[in-house]
């Protein structure tokens, strides 16, 4: 599906915020209204959503947010 997961030796796993944006809004659909929606959604996830942790990682020489799902599954 094109998702690029970030994996490290310590079992850290997540997905880079720009990759999520690109999946939802391909460059052909990135108008001003869409980007305002995206910025609002990303800000909510980064600041308010307790199910997701945000880490800053260096990817290809660029710092970006990486989201990691931390909510417990129902079976846990």
TrEMBL record:
GO-annotated cellular components: nuclear inner membrane
Subcellular location: Nucleus inner membrane
Gene3D superfamilies for this protein: MAN1, winged-helix domain (1.10.10.1180)
Location, primary (coarse class): nucleus
Entries under InterPro entries matching the protein: MAN1_winged_helix_dom
This protein's UniProt keywords: Membrane, Nucleus, Transmembrane, Transmembrane helix
Name under which the protein is recorded: Tnp_DNA_bind domain-containing protein
